[in-house]
Amino acid sequence: MDFLKIQPIHLDVLREIGNIGAGHAATALSTMLNKAVDMKVPSVNVISFEEISEMVGGAENVVASVFLRIVGDAPGCMFFMLPVEQAEQLLEDLLVGQTVNLSSGDESDIALSALQEVGNILSGSYLTSFSDFTGLNLQPSVPATSIDMAGAILSFGLFEISAVSDYAIVIDTAFTDIERQDEVKGHFFLLPDPLSFSKIFHALGVPLDE
Amino acid sequence: MSEIIKVGIADINIVSPPNTIRTTGLGSCVGVILFDQVKKIAGMAHIMLPDSSLSKTPTLNEGKYADTAIKSLYDMLIKSGANGKGLKAKIAGGAQMFKFTSGSEMMRIGPRNVERVKEELSSLKIPLLASDVGGSSGRTIEFNPENTVLTIKTVNAGTKVI
Q1: Which CATH number characterizes residue B112's domain?
Q2: Which of A104, A115, B42, B133 would bridge with B35, disulfide CB 3.0–4.6 Å?
């Protein structure tokens, strides 16, 4: 994968994947919570490993995350990540009447299971529209959850990439509550494996110049 | 005035008192510290992958792989006046951040990193004095070359020193 061959059109195509995918996920989230959820314009960046952590408040910042591997025609990694307080808020909205504490280390099984299910539904709708849009066969693995340092979690998604490059292409979409626009609820990170890019570009009719 | 020297992902750096050296957010990555207690000089590498044979890049980033990072950290310390025979090691990291039922090799990257680091240390005859590896927690580590204490902070399991 040669990043130098990437043209602005390719970044636009990736941004559109983020747009459509996260758009569907936002709709699913909005239905689950029964309130409006807004999303920001996706950003697509070629960034160093250090900078990925910076996007979620630094390597040491504690976040709640759901991770899954994408298998099929264009393998990759997907993360749904949100600040711990936001995750608690989200789960309290879902598990009506319960107080959710994710930061203590003795978080309840039902809260973790609910978080995993939220991640599952959201990433499932993201992935389905990604698959429909590109015509590629893509399936999610069973999701896994972790509440820990952002850097430690994200580096897990970088192994395929790190053998090939010191940089990753990250498609990031941030969510906000429609009533509190400044408050970011969560991030979707899509990190295709290096070999997947040419397949994605080819499927969408903008192959890289060989 | 003491400073904290930062070590990024796939990065290597060295330190001497009164400064300390630190790396943040180790997941399945491993932080390797080599130190000369007499000369009071130490270095840290933040490795991501077990072996440089995995590399598919035209230029090798030595800090990324256990085998090359430890050798190059060793050379840096010797050049800065450390005594090769007096070097000792401490390591931390190699966690499994996510648990999957499918036991794919990629998911075992933490334990593989730790194994490779230990092999490399023993081939260079560097004694491993202490380690805090495995588990499922991210770690932030800081080493003080003055007293050779390694402080390990985690989100879920508190702080400990080795």
Answers
A1: 3.30.1330.200
A2: B42
What total number of domains does chain B contain?
1
Which residue, among B22, B24, B62, B64, would best test binding to A if mutated, counting the most A CBs under 10 Å from its CB?
B24
* Nearest CA among A118, A13, A21 for reference residue A64: A118
Instruction: Report the pLDDT value the prediction gives residue B65, as an integer from 0 to 100.
Output: 93
pLDDT in tens, A31-88: 888 878 888 878 888 888 878 888 877 888 889 999 888 999 999 988 888 888 888 8
What three-state secondary structure class fits A39? strand
Instruction: Report the alpha-carbon distance of residue B80 to residue A53 in Å, rounded.
Output: 32
User: Residue B89: is its pLDDT beyond 60?
Assistant: yes
Measured CA to CA in angstroms, residue A74 lies from B6, B21, B98 at distances of 36, 40, 22
Closest approach of chain A CAs to the CA of B97, in angstroms?
Answer: 6
pLDDT tens digit string along A143-182? 888 889 998 998 888 877 887 777 788 888 887 776 665 5
From residue B59, give the alpha-carbon distance in Å to each of B11, B44, B63, B66: 15, 22, 12, 16
A156, B28: Cβ pair inside 8 Å? yes
Residue A34 burial (10 A CB sphere; 0-12, 13-18, 19+): exposed
- In angstroms, rounded to a whole number, what is the distance separating the alpha carbons of residues A79 and A147? 12
A142-156, B4-18, B52-66: which is most confident = B4-18
Q: Which fold has domain A3-203?
A: Chemotaxis protein chec (3.40.1550)
Task: Determine the Cα–Cα distance for residues B113 and B109; give it in Å rounded to an integer.
Answer: 6
Task: Break chain A into its structural domains and give their ranges.
Answer: 3-203
Are A49 and B10 an interchain contact pair (Cβ–Cβ within 8 Å)?
Answer: yes
Q: Does A67 touch chain B (CB under 8 A)?
A: yes
